[in-house]
Structures are given as structure tokens and as C-alpha cells.
Amino acid sequence: MPSIPLAGSLYNLSGTSISNYRVSEPIGSGGYGVVYRGLDVLSPRKLYAIKCMVKADSGSRHSVFQERELTLQALVCDHPNIVHLHEILSDDHHIYAVMQYCEEGDLFSAIVDRQVYIHRDGLIKAAIVQLIDAVTYCHSLAIFHRDIKPENVMCASKGTRVFLGDFGLATTTPVSSDFCCGSRYYMSPECINDELRLTCYSLPESDLWSLGIILYNLVSMHNPWRFATTEDSNFSMFLHDPLYFRRTLRLSKEANQILHSIFALNPTDRICISDLRKQIVALPTFYMRD
């Protein structure tokens, strides 16, 4: 297996100790730094995910982002479907966020690699309802995630439990002019803003769009389109064919209606998140009945 590259000026922490945590192998990485598996030596059976970041210069833009990420996650991590932030440690050069460890990795791996959810209505419902509950809770506290995608959702208990994580792009501003923020496959058309020429857009509806893409991922194991613009042939076909999902995925009539209600081009026409939850709970099946 190839080694995970270390980000920034982080050195390899495997085999070292941070406070009462014994650091083992890296389990993820990104522009932010590296996540390691860590063992609490005061409670030897307790594992944590330790997110290690190079400490930004005081007063810099990056330091504002780091502080915001950890502050916002701390505000919402008491929810049962949000990755719990156990504690924050630091030294002269690094910040260590000690978080809940989820032994099954992220939702992307569960969907694509292990194929946990495909054609399993009960599991799909459980996963998406938990994510809806997590996002609803964030929104109730005026926290908007802006990067909802399977790689930022962790899994446990054979996929029956999911946890929203990575608040690196989260904000408390409900309306934003920060376009193309997040992961493009999961961005709403108004967030991409290639064709709409907007000056700002609403974040609750944009988060809802991202949830809709995850729902599509769960029922199909792939994305509905690469980019939500008319230059994307799949998105264009969706816009012009009300039965596009029925034909390509053999989805049930009810599931097709739910997806269309999420993917309304006008954000004000999208289903509200509480109604979405009700409709998914009441849904008999996501798939056509033979």
C-alpha cells in the first residue's frame, strides 16, 4: 500500500506520543494535514482519530480558518451524527484535534469499495436520515457546512451509523458570495455560478443539494453528473427529462420525485429539509418494483 504523503511541514508522527495519546499509522491526509490513529494510553482500549495540522501564523487568514473550523465543530459535535471533537491540543508548531474514531472509514469507501448500501432500502434510509438530522442541527445553530460529501462522512456499525465531519469550510453566514466553495461534484448550480451570474447564494439550500447528491450516491454507487451546469450532458438530460432517473437507474416513482424536489434549479423551489426527512421515512422503496 502506498504511504500517505504528509502535508505542509508536518513530520511523520507515527510511533510518537502526544500528551496521553500514542500515535500509530496515518489514516488520511489532505491540504489541512494528516489524520492518525491514536491510542489513549490511560484507557488502552480507546482509539481516537488525531487530526494534525501545522499551526498557522497568528493573525493570518489561515489561522482564522483553523480557529473557525475547530470552534464550529465543537459547537455541534454533541449531536449523535456529527463526529465528536474530544479535545484540542497544541505545541509550538502543530495543532492536534482529537476526534471520534470510526473504524469503518468514510462513506465513500462504504458506497463504492464495499458496496454496503446498493439495493438496501433500510440502510440507505438510515444513512440519509442521519445525515439530514446532522445538517438540520447545524442549520438550527446557523452553521453551514459547505462541503458535504461522502469523504467527509464517517461510518460505523456496518454502515448503520454515519457521522458528518470535516468543518474546514463551514461558516455562520447564511448567504455567501464565495462561489465554487467545496467539492465540485457536490456543488449546487448557484454555488458553481458558471451560468447564473449571481452576486450571492443561500447556503442552506446549497447544503441540501449536496445531501441530494449523496442520496443519489447511496442508491446508485456513482454521481448523477460531474458538474451541475448545462455543459454537462448528464445534467442537461436531467433538466430536460423528468423521467431521466427512472430510465437510467430504475428508481421508484417516489424516489424520482424526491430527487427532483431536491434538484430544483431555483433554490427557493427546493423541498425544505424537514419535509425531505418525512418523505424519505415514508418512502416504500427507492427502486422500481419488478
Automatic annotation (TrEMBL):
Alphabetical keyword list: ATP-binding, Kinase, Nucleotide-binding, Serine/threonine-protein kinase, Transferase
Binding, ATP: 51
Molecular-function GO term, any one: ATP binding
Record domain Protein kinase: where: 21-286
UniProt KW Nucleotide-binding keyword: yes
Pfam hit, one: Pkinase
Gene3D superfamilies, per database record: Transferase(Phosphotransferase) domain 1
Annotated protein name in UniProt: Kinase-like domain-containing protein
Native organism: Pterulicium gracile
